[in-house]
Structure formats: structure tokens, C-alpha cells
Amino acid sequence: MAGQQNSPHELVERALELSRADGCVVLVDEETTANLRWAAADGRPGSALTTNGVTRGRRLTVISTVHGAEGTACGVLAREAVTTADLADLVRAAEAAARAAGPAEDAGPLLGPEAAPAAATGFTEPPAETSIDVFTDFAPQLGTAFARARAAGQALYGFARHELTSSYLGSSTGLRLRHDQPTGTVELNAKAGAASAWTGAATRDFADVDVAGLQSALDERLGWGKRRIDLPAGRYETLLPPSALADLMISLSWSMNARDAVEGRTVFSRPGGGTRLGERLARLPLTLRSDPAAPGLQSAPFVLARSSTDEHSVFDNGLPVGATEWIRNGELAELQTTRHSAALTGLPVRPAGDNLVLELADQSAAPSLAEMVARTERGLLLTCLWYIREVDPATLLLTGLTRDGVYLVEDGQVVGEVNNFRFNESPVDLLGRITEAGRTERCLPREWSDWFSRAAMPPVRVADFNMSSVSQAS
Amino acid sequence: MPPTASSPAGRHIDPLFLALPLRRLAAAALDRARQLGVEHADFRLERVRSASWRLRDAKPAGSSDTLQLGFAVRVLLDGAWGFAAGVDLTEQAAAQVAEQAVAVARLSARISRAAGGGDRVELADEPVHQDATWISAYEINPFDVPDAEKTGLLADWSSRLLAADGVSHVDADLLTVQENKFYADTAGTMTTQQRIRLHPSLEAVAVDDRTGTFESMRTLAPPAGRGWEYLNGTGWDWAAELARLPEYLAEKVKAPSVQPGLYDLVIDPTNLWLTIHESIGHATELDRALGYEAAYAGTSFATFDQLGTLRYGSPLLQVTGDRTAEHGLATIGYDDEGVATQSWDLIRDGVLTGYQLDRRMAKSKDLGRSNGCAFADSPGHVPVQRMANVSLRPAADGPDTAGLWAGVENGLYLVGDRSWSIDMQRYNFQFTAQRAYAIKNGQLAGQVKDFAYQASTTEFWGSMTAVGGPQTYLLAGAFNCGKAQPGQVAAVSHGCPSALFEQVRILNTQQEAAH
Description:
By secondary structure, chain A is an alpha+beta fold.
């Protein structure tokens, strides 16, 4: 496999030249990552770095399409560490896979350059890279945080990761697109006695990460945890911070497949046939949208599909991804489609997005979480949710747990830390029980951040949040 | 369907893997690390081929064939770990990656020192294994089977289900993996290994257009460390399962909603494996118990100070950690720290007696030798302590599953896994199943639906009053268990018999969703 490491755009061009299939799409993903992880062994105060590293990867995906009497078939092969010497074998293998496959149900004409979004440039430029140097300013702050935790008698745990992926897309129909995607996350978890507090942030470059500020937020919450309050399972008015709400809305967005809805097998199916499009889901005029150009949450403005799934089709590669309002002013407005599923369902083409924003139109009047706490008579304030799994697709009932801080609010004040709970809730049903939404802010979804970290959500007040049982975990 | 490739006698390490410059790159990386003064270094070169096929209503709906190839260097310097990975298979790149790993170790040691940290990483001793090879137990490498044969079989199976009354849709999936690993370290261990695993699955959906309701049911065949022969009937009776699935689904559609309350549960191994995975498998990982996963996957209620004393469950509870079981998904010859794999007790007579370890954990707690649980899921990831095949032993003279029903006056029999969730210390869990049957006076009395069982780990295992015999034993498992940051997936098997649990809380999920 050793050989000349050509530039990504040259690999794309060479693979397309080698193609003898009816159609060909080539994607090259160049990825560099750097990460730091830390933990306090045996819960002792302070912390130490544990498993840290830097990586470099290159993946080349060849999608060959072959026309036949019964339709068009495709073969999808991906290989890492590819050089020009490997290309001919890879292209031939993709073509063989296409010839062996039956007609692809999602087959359609490959897109040409006329479909390309204007924003995609730099196809011949080298890939963007990250390295351990991305932590040059962050690492000393982290050392200071370790010392501060030690002095305060706290155990500190966490993880920081930065990833840069440059994707190059070329097709036999003339598409040439490139997208650079930085993704950064940092999480801090502090424990003192029985109290545990978590905070996290998403970033594009770590320049905006304020470790001391994050640690101060943890200190405040650990302070709240000095008084322990036991509460039973039940339905409580609950304040969900942006991180917790993001995890629920991501789960909701993953269920917005139009074809499944039309087939009658999701929460968005209408009894008797069709979908719930146009139905009011939220009492408040909330809008759930994705937008590749959302500030701080930028994502690919065109489809990059490395295999066909229910959400993406390899035949849609290069298809522009626009801003989409999935829920508009509280009403279900759009469901996710590929070109194929749009044709099947009679709905417009709406590719899934790679970011998610929930907001009220009037942000200037929206309160902060602290202001919402101040006007709470009695309710729970959560930190984040964990181990969220679907229990019933018909209602989109999810189960999961609270984690790292549940607090009781009485008469506008946090009065202590409550035991953890298992919840059983549907995010669709929950939308209808949001009685107040605050100011939308960028947040880190905790449960799903490995797959989806670009989110901005408001804190919300929810009536009757179903805490199904008490969890002993602390 | 005739076999298309090799036989057990013909099993061999993939020559394409052996043709890679394994030893040259290892020497370049380890030599450079030694020059830079490391206390330990290891080199791992991996080639992991993963392929998947999806069919929707018997038509191809997406496939992929992905090959990961790269190498990693991990070093121990100044008592701190450093790790780096690369994909350029040249000696120069291997040496550079070793240098990067050393730089990361230095940064790590510097930050820890500046913060006043005194913990140094040390490794438990392990005998040197010189040029050892190991291959998992399979007959036919699925990558030697033509793709058309794979999709043809899935389409045939899907069509059989679609032809049945009441089946509206069928989703079919097949995942196959061939994993090749080469490992070398500065102590002189060198291993070359290959393993195969696959996971076929079909789900039938019944939609009632009039009412807008729908139900689904998935095959129970577990993922297995086997080859293509698994789909030809070795290790699982596919024909029988596919023949019965539509009637199981039709019965579920018409089944009454469960009454919530306390029930005696007979849990089939197709469901119980996942409860073992979540409430015992993860809870007995020593890295979790010590806090290394605290910020992410969580810790464990089974803390180290309770080793030898924690009453985990009833005296009938005998649980083994095992990385040697034939066809196990976590089975391998040597782990990713060069440790020869083993089998050992985790719970004996209901008491916690052991943990899953890597070399660092073993040394830090003076537990002697590692039991071989270090694993990285790709060349780009650092090895972390991952789960062995964690299995519940059957009772030597235990009853069959019907024998367990016989002792139940009012209960449920749960079959097949579905939804699962547990808290971050492994106390509170909630699971559902593919099917639940009412048990009335020792007999099955039809399916119920909308059920979930919720319990706390030690109470649940403490309520186990009967364990099925070897005739009920099944090696089930998971293909993609997640852990660590950056996130890694691992395949792991869990063997267990049917078992009886008394007075477990059953919820009605429709009532849970209502408000």
C-alpha cells in the first residue's frame, strides 16, 4: 500500500479518469484530530491526563453506477490510506460491486456542476489540518484547572477534542466540491463528596473556550449540591437547559424521515394515512431549523453521502442543502427527503441538516435560564440527560436518565440538589407542554455529541415532565 | 446454498495483510521511540474491513464496503501516555508518528506535573509472546462470498416475510467484519491475528392504515463470531425463525396492553444477555470503577473497595469474564497490549470476585497479571479497557425454559432485546423486549404489549430464584458497544441460560407516554 501520497483533488481526478462505469462519484475525506482526556484516579482531588493523542486519516470512497435493463445499480467502496497505486484496483472493485448489485431503489441521475452551491471553492487547495498545537492556549488553562480542583478538594474529569475534516467531492458529471469542517468539543465534570456537576461547550477552533469560566459554573453547581434533597418519582414542572433539550430535539430530528412517516411507521404518521405535516406540535411559536450557514454552527452546504441510508442517497451527492424550518411557529412544516423519497412521497426535496436550532422569533424578549429560575415557584432544574433510547416509535417515547446535577427550585431560588431520575418522555409530546422558552444559545448536546454537536437551543420550562423512577446514581 | 470458500482447515491470515510492511514499520517506530527514551512503546497496524447491506422491502437500499488501514504508536514516557496514529505506510512516517506520540506524552506529563499530580502510569508484567498468530473460529469468510449471493439471500428472506398476511414492510441488514491486527512492543512481543464476525437481522412491520397503529418484530439471531455458514444454518435455525415471525407479529398486533405491576419474569437468553451486558458487564470494568470513564460512560456502583464482599445477587449468580469462548465476539488470542487472553470469575455465588483489567489497571491495584481486556476499535484509537465476553453460567441440572414457567403463577416470559437504558453507575435500568407472553399458572397465555421492565441492579439479580440448565444456554451479544472518548465501538458476546426473577416492576409504556 505504500506509495506516492497524492493530493486529495488529484486522487479524485485520477479515480474519475480510471472509471469505466456509466457514472462515478469520488469522495476523499482528509481528517486530522487531536484530543486530551483527563481523570482523577479513585476520585482523588485534582486530575491527570490519561489517553491523549493525535491522528491523521484519509478515506477515499468510490461510488460506481451501472445502468441495466431493470435500473441503475451502484457499488460503494471506501478505503483508508489510499495512494494512486491503489486507485485502479479500488475503482474496478467498486464497478464489480455495482455489477453484482441489484438495481438501487434510490437511483437517479448524478448531479452536474449546475447544481453546485456557489460557496464551495478551493477544490485544488491542500486539506485543512489540526494538531496538538490547537491546545496551545487551552492546555495551560487545563493545568490551572487541575490545580484549582485539587485545592478545592474536587475531582476533575473531562475531554477535549478537535477534528478537522476536508472533504473533496468529484463526479463524472463534472461536480467538483470541497468542504472543510472543524468540530471541537470540551466537557468538564467535577465531583465533590456526593455532588457531581457537568458543563460542556462546542467550538470550531478552541480560541473561544474559557476553562476558568466553565469551572466557575461547576463551582456554583457543586455549591448547590451541598444540600441534598430526596424526591420521589412523579411528574414535575422542569427547567431543561439547552444541552438537555438539544439531546431530545436531536432524537426528534432523527425520526423525521418522510418516507417512513408516509408508510405509517413513525410518530409523524397521520392515522388513516399521510403525515402530520401542518399539525401544531408546540403551543408556543417555536421554530426548529437547520441551516448550513448558521453562525458558529456552519456545516456542509451540500450533500456528502458516503453510503445510502434512509436519510441520504449516494445519488444526491452535491445536492445543495439549504436552510430548512422543520417546525415553523409550532407547526410541523417539513420532513426529511432525498430526491428519491421526495418523488415517492410527493413531498419537496429536503436533505437532513448537520446542525439544529430551536428558537422563538423574538429573541430580545426571551429570558435567560437564571431569569426563568427566578420566576419558578417550585420545579426541577436539570443539567443534562443520558442514555437516551427509544422505547416506542409510535409515540417516540424515549427513556433516559438525569445526570450530574438535578436541583430543586423553590420561590425563585435553587435550594438544593435532588437525587437522579429515570425519565420516560416523548420529545414530540413534550413540545406541546413547553410553557416558556428562553434565549437560544449555542450548546453541547451531551448524549449525542459523538454524532451531532452543532446545536443552539433555548432553556425551556416543561409542565409535568415524567420522572418515572429514582436512580441511585450520583 | 453451497459453501463458496474455505473450510476450517483452510483458515489462514489474509495474505494481503501479511504482505504489508508490518515488521519494518514496527521496527522503525519502536526504534525511534527507544531513541527518545521511552519506558515502553507499542506499535499496532490494523486492517479492518467492514461491509454492510440494507434492503427495504426486499430491494437494495444501500451498501458499503469500508477498509480501515493504518497504524498507531503508544508510548509511556515520564509516567505518562502518548499516542499518535498515521496512515502512510512508510518507515519514515512510522518514525514520525512515534515522535508525535512522544511529544503528546511530554505534554501530558508536563501538565500533570504543573498541576501537582503524582500518579505515574506503570504496567503489569506480561510474558513475552514471540511471533504468535491467532485466527478466530469460522468456516467461510463472508468476504469470499459474492455480494450477489448475500443480497440474494436477504431478498429471499425478506420476500418470505412480505408474503405473509399482515406484514407491511420488511427491513433487512447484514453487517460483516474482518479484523486483522499486528502488534509489537519494546518488550519483544509480536502477534498477528485475524477474526471474523457478522450480524444479520430482519425486521417485519405491520401497519394498520385504518387506525394508524403499527408494530414491529425483529429476528432474534444474535451477532456471532462465525463466518457465512451462520446464514446457512450453522448455529441458528433461520428457516424456523423466519417461518414463525409473521405469526408472532400478528399476535402482538392484537395483544392486550399489559397491566403495570410486579410480575415474576422468566427471561429468555435472547433478552437476558443485554441485561447482563449493561448491569454486570460494564459495572465490572475496573477503569470505570476507578473513575477513568467518569465524565462519559460513567463509573460503577461496584467500587474496588467492595471486591470480595459486594453481594451482587442471589447465590445462584455465577458470572465469568472470558476472552477465549469459541465464536465469542470479544474472543481473541492476545489483546491490544500483547496480553494472552484468559477466562476468570467476576461473580461467584452472588459475590463480586473480579474485574476486567488492562495492564495499567492490574498494576495500579496490585492484581497481578492483566486478564487481557485492552482493545482499540481502529488503528486511529488508543486501546482502552473493553469488555470480555461476560456470561452467566447455567445450572448444571437446571430446568428447561418451560420448567421455569411451571413455577410461575402470574408472570411474564420475555423474549428478544429491544430498548435498553441504564444509569451511569449501573443501578437503575429499563428494558423492553421483542415479545412478552403472559404466564398464568405455569402456562403461557398469549402475548401482551406496551411493556417495559425497570429495576435496580443488585435487587434484580438478588431476585433470581432459578437458573435454567445448559439446554437453555445461548451465546448472544452486541456488535457495537460504545465506550471511551473519542468514542469507540466493540463487539462482545454474552452467554446465558433462561432464568426466573421474582416480583420485578413492569411498566405500561402507553401510560408512561400519556400525561
